């Protein structure tokens, strides 16, 4: 790959992410025409258009979406080369590489990584965030030792090696809590406003099933696919939200109360690895620390154990 091709791929990814040539040009210290020329040259080389031109704006098309994951993978690989070379030079080339979805990478993994790094200062781990779609497209050639994703998603090219089960938490504003203790009866949430965590996900389906069993009706005032956004909405007084205990731990602060619902609502994350390949010693160590973090969260009425 030439340097010019790499620059064009970066411009394509940036425009696909933000939808604005002007913004990308400002961010990359280029002219708008320069960004447009890079993308046009890339499309000419590929033999197909990546964007549709709609009223002077670029909208990524079906082929562009398909090519986007390949472009990300290529740019990531090239940009990691200097770091990989330094790791090999320092005999740290067997460090662990992890991919995970947003909620897992912002909630569960940081405390686990902190414990892992504390015992291995010479083997800095790599942690990469991927969307559910990108996670589903991963294969062994992507060179991740462990991949974390919410169940029941299945990754056909990878092997499920660990199931991490835990109880969800309810995040509410402190003025809604009228009882002490780590638990909150679902029936006391009758009529409360809630943020929905994607009505098409099994995560949300489990929550709605639990409310139905408790004969409790709530109103959903907005929807998001991000647990962190849901937690922020709770802090802003929009409504309550169900979070995993690890994300809940990162947002627990004055004004937000974290409780375990009664009856409890279970969810799980899956850990995947390349098939037909022995899990490395570093990956096994990381899994031990991850299990310990999940066990601590499950043993706690709230998520403070991971702080």
- Figure out the total of helices: 11
Largest sheet: 5 strands, mixed
Separation, N- and C-terminal Cα atoms? 44 Å
Which runs of at least 5 residues are low in confidence (pLDDT < 50)? 302-307
Beta strand %:
15-25%
Number of domains: 2
- Total DSSP E strands: 13
Structural class label? alpha/beta
Helix-strand pattern: HHHEEHEHHEHEEEEEHEHEHEEH
* Spatial strand order of the main sheet: 4-3-5-13-6
Walk me through what this model shows.
- The chain is 44% helix and 21% strand.
- Strands 4-3-5-13-6 form a five-stranded mixed sheet.
- It starts with a helix and ends in an 8-residue tail after the last helix.
- It contains eleven helices and 13 strands.
- The radius of gyration is 22 Å and the shape is globular.
- The chain has two domains: 3-69, Arc Repressor Mutant, subunit A (Orthogonal Bundle), CATH 1.10.10.10; 94-307, D-Maltodextrin-Binding Protein, domain 2, CATH 3.40.190.
- Helix 1 (3-18) packs across helix 4 (62-89) and helix 6 crosses helix 11 (281-299).
- The protein is an alpha/beta fold and 307 residues long.
- It has helices at residues 3-18, 21-27, 32-46, 62-89, 102-106, 109-119, 132-136, 202-213, 227-235, 245-251, 281-299, and strands at 51-54, 57-60, 97-100, 126-129, 146-150, 159-167, 169-173, 183-185, 193-196, 219-223, 241-243, 256-262, 266-273.
Task: Give me a quick take on this structure.
This protein is of the alpha/beta class and 307 residues long.
Topology:
Elements: H1 3-18, H2 21-27, H3 32-46, E1 51-54, E2 57-60, H4 62-89, E3 97-100, H5 102-106, H6 109-119, E4 126-129, H7 132-136, E5 146-150, E6 159-167, E7 169-173, E8 183-185, E9 193-196, H8 202-213, E10 219-223, H9 227-235, E11 241-243, H10 245-251, E12 256-262, E13 266-273, H11 281-299
Parallel strand pairs: 3-4, 3-5, 8-12, 9-10
Antiparallel strand pairs: 1-2, 5-13, 6-13, 7-11, 7-12
Helix pairs in contact: 1-3, 1-4, 2-3, 6-11
């Amino acid at each position: 790959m030439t340097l010019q091709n790499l620059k064009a791929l970066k411009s394509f990814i940036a425009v696909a992410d933000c939808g604005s040539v002007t913004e990308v040009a400002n961010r990359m210290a280029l002219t708008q025409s320069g960004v447009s020329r890079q993308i046009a040259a890339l499309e000419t080389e590929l033999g197909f258009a990546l964007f549709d031109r709609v009223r002077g704006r670029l909208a990524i098309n079906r082929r562009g979406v398909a090519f986007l994951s390949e472009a990300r993978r290529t740019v990531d690989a090239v940009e990691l080369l200097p770091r990989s070379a330094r790791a090999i030079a320092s005999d740290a080339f067997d460090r662990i590489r992890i991919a995970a979805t947003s909620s897992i990478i912002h909630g569960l993994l940081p405390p686990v990584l902190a414990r892992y790094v504390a015992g291995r200062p010479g083997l800095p781990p790599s942690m990469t965030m991927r969307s559910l779609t990108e996670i589903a497209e991963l294969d062994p050639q992507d060179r991740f030792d462990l991949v974390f994703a919410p169940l029941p998603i299945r990754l056909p090219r990878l092997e499920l090696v660990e199931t991490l089960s835990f109880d969800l938490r309810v995040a509410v504003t402190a003025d809604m809590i009228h009882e002490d203790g780590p638990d909150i009866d679902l029936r006391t949430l009758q009529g409360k406003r809630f943020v929905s965590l994607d009505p098409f996900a099994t995560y949300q389906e489990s929550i709605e099933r639990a409310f139905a069993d408790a004969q409790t009706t709530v109103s959903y005032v907005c929807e998001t696919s991000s647990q962190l956004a849901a937690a922020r909405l709770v802090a802003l007084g929009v409504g309550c939200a169900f979070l995993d205990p690890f994300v809940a731990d990162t947002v627990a602060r004055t004004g937000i109360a974290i409780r375990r619902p009664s009856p409890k609502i279970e969810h799980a994350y899956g850990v995947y690895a390349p098939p037909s390949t022995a899990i490395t010693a570093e990956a096994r160590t990381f899994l031990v620390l991850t299990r310990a973090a999940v066990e601590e969260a499950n043993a706690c009425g709230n998520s403070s154990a991971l702080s």
